[in-house]
Design goal:
It is built from 15 helices and 14 strands. The protein is α+β, with helices and mostly antiparallel strands and 426 residues long. 34% of the residues lie in helices and 13% in strands. The longest helix has 18 residues.
Amino acid sequence: MTLRIRRRERLHLDGRIHPDFQGVEATLRDQLRNYPGGAAVCVYHRGDCVVDLWGGYRDEEGTLWTSDTMAPSFSTTKGVASTLLHIYADRGLIDYDAPVAQYWPEFGQAGKAEITVRQVLSHQSGLYHIRQMVDHVDRLLDWKYMIRAIERATPAHPPGTRTGYHGLTFGFLIGEIIQRVTGRKFSDLVQKEIAKPLKLDGLFIGAPKREITRAAKLIFPDSTRRLSRSSLGSKLEVGANRLSWMLQRLGLDSDLSSIFDALAPRGISDFDFGSPESLRVAIPAANGLFTARSLAKMYALLANGGEFEGVRLLSEETLEEATTLQQPTGKLSVIPFDMRWRLGYHAVATTRGFPRRGFGHFGFGGSGAWADSERGLSVALIVNSGLGSPFGDLRTARIGGTALACANARSKPAGLLKEPRVLAAG
């Protein structure tokens, strides 16, 4: 299918969609017209793949996005890493309320002996301040260095007293716990425990060299590039520190500077998460390389009580605990609003409301994936055009809102009689 857009380019869109979910196609078309690059969307409902669409361009040269294109998906990766940990918790190898040091003894130094796995998963361990742990962002490429840095680190606040989003450290914390209890490499376990059992076509955290050619190139707007070359970031950091100090003098609990500690290690503006070098190593909080199809199928399993197409990865009991809202601390760092954390997943916000039983993880630049166990619904969006905000944009919320509305409106008897429509590539 082709459609004229304002830049007089053709709108490339391909895939399959169930007639009950045509609204998702319309929403994706609108996004492809108004954002650079490309995207893919996949939706499962009641066990059926009802949307599997991809379109746009995988690079700035205009290479078409294809069925097997994957995209670096930033913090969407955290949902996959958390799911892997829950698999081992389900087998009795990890206790959510046990100290992390029980599995990783070196972790227990510098005031961290009592930090629990639950506190790590719910972002309450106080170990988000990567800017204070490492001298340069390139350290993210060295797993052993990052583990030693975390072992030496003192929590930014007493564990359990604040909720502070562990933007870049979360994956190393989760990943090392998993490696300690299994004795296996994290990236290999993602394949062994999730990708292979579910026959996923693209789900990597630390991708093999042979798969890198499928990766879409990250595209950033000129405004973001200009900002990265300016000194505005350092000026904002100084201003945030001063404002936090003033508010604290007035008796107000504020930690505005924590966003820089958590999300801006030195050199971050020049670090390419989408480079082959970055994608080949595991940064389990930030560098997953996924197809929307794989993310949606993994979350379809989570929406279906931990079992899908004869494959069970989690018991219903473990899944219930993993997706139960955790006790909030009432005090927030890094992200100045309540994300309503589960164990590694946050609540789902869409333009059509907040599904009560929804959980998942969104990522920088617009990607995201989630499940709603009440509706048997899972939704995934991957993109390659970041917008320069740590909190991404509203594309996942819009796609999710449309999918939610379609699921709510769907008549079960009528819906099951209809056949998916195949789009003509164009």
